[in-house]
Amino acid sequence: MSDFKDLIAKQREKLETVQESTLDVEFGGEMVTVGVSKVMPEVWDDLIGRCPPRQGREDDAQVGYNPKALTALYPEVTVDGEKIDPKDWAAGFAIMDPAFRNNIELTIWGVNINESLQALRKLGKARAGRKSPSPAN
Q1: What is the distance between the alpha carbons of residues 42 and 19, in angstroms, rounded to a whole number?
Q2: How many angstroms separate the CA atoms of 75 and 71, rounded?
Q3: Could you give the 3-state DSSP secondary structure of residue 8?
Q4: Are the C-beta atoms of residues 122 and 48 closer than 8 Å to each other?
Q5: Which of these, 19, 39, 54, 94, has the minimum number of CB atoms within 10 Å of its CB?
């Protein structure tokens, strides 16, 4: 395993690289491209803390937060490449068609959570066949 300080430096470098996902939506009778960028871990933690799962909502319980509220508050959004003020984003998201709202919610989850899970899965496959590092061995 690499020196932990080297791993810290690599992680910081990785976080400084902007990861953005985009999708096309219809809004105001026009097709626009909405982009969402991965937020820093402390921003993500703050967002999910401000958007706890709604009572009785299985979909919220599965992801651990209220995706509607989190998406409305999401700070890293562009429309057609232009950064959108968070208050304007919340106002626009509130009146967006449900299908597009759901797609944006999934995209935010994907860029912040799923990409990390996929990287871990890929690293796990790379370790396949190697002896487990568990102290039990």
Answers
A1: 16
A2: 9
A3: helix
A4: no
A5: 94
| Contact criterion met (CB below 8 Å) for 115 and 38 | yes
Tokens 């096309």 identify what position? 24
The CA angle 104-44-57, to the nearest 5 degrees, is 60
Query: What are phi and psi for residue 118, nearest 5 degrees?
Result: -65, -40
Query: Strand, helix or coil at 37?
Result: strand
Backbone angles phi, psi at 80, to 5 degrees: 50, 40
Contacts (Cβ under 8 Å, ≥6 apart) of 21: 35, 36, 107, 110, 111
**Token pair belonging to 63:** 């992801």
Residue 92: other Cβ atoms inside 10 A: 17
pLDDT tens column, 72-121:
999 999 999 999 999 999 999 999 999 999 999 999 999 999 888 887 78
- The model's pTM is 0.79
Quick one: how far is CA 118 from the chain centroid?
13
Q: Is 81 left (phi over 0), alpha (psi -120 to 50) or beta?
A: left
* Cβ within 8 Å of residue 101, ≥6 positions away: 68, 71, 93
